[in-house]
Amino acid sequence: MAVKISRKALNRATLDRQFLLRRTDLPLQQALEQLVGLQAQTTTSWYHGMWTRVTGFDPYALSELLSNRSVVRMVVMRGTIHLVTAEDALFLRPLTQIVSTRAFQLADLDYDEVIRVGRGLVEGKPMIFSELGKHLAKQWPTHDPSKLAHVVRAHVPLVQIPPRGLWGGSGIAAHTTVESWLGRSVHAEPSVDQLVIRYLAAFGPASVKDAQTWSGLTKLGEVFTRLRPQLVTFEDENGRELFDLPDAPRPAEDTPAPVRFLYEYDNLLLSHQDRTRVATPEWLAQERPINGVLPKIFLVNGFTAGMWSVTGGTLTISPYRPLSKKDTAALVREGGKLLEFAASGQSHRVEILAPN
Q: In Å, how far are 114, 263, 314 from 177, measured between CA atoms?
């Protein structure tokens, strides 16, 4: 019979693996591998995701890893751009390829030829998608250029190359193939079993549907069935079966959880089908994007407690509910550190608004 596990115990286990109970001293690449990447479709806000997780985080050191091709930004889980190590790019992309290809189809088109031509174009010269579409439209003039470019994006493993995404400066969103950029081929037979194990190490305990939400893949039930002898199982407060690695950390539910500032697409909030291990009803009620962008969220005692933004040197905190004096003081302290990182060289102010 599965062991019962509380919502708060799930919370602490996930925060621990996400380096949100305490910051990690791991080198950046190792930390990124443990996290199985950071969602990174924005230009640079994911740097905040590493800042809140890594002791003494230096954004320029992460920029250097992008420049020297040790880490890359490319479409993997959920069909979204992630920051991943070079090795993980070659491992994850073939496993998650289907997530991109199943979402986009065009009729009356020789896909193989479009893919072949498109690959050659971006390997000859890294291109933004509008430029790629214009070149492809010369050969397929009856098709929308943007849709032709999207065919290549969906079927070819592309990386978004620097200077795009560098801290303190950026550039156009130019793409080339991961093979051309890294000088190596994607894995020929990557293990989906290993993918699930990596997921549990970063986000467990978790259900089959949680893993499918994180990855964008379907039919992972058979993978969990195959792995079951290697895993331990739990039952959450709603009776769902959860799986985990036997030796993974599962701190006591009364373990203190410090306040933390998350960026708008933080994987902590996007990697479970049931998000209540970290999400409060207030967050669940307003999780839809505002003007196309998810709000930045802060955690109090491990759970979503409100939104934040930085304008100039001012950090504005908008809590869902009234804060205790202790939590207010903790937010001001951590907020001051955030401003030192995000608004260096400016005068700083932390403003906490009254709940609506």
A: 15, 28, 40
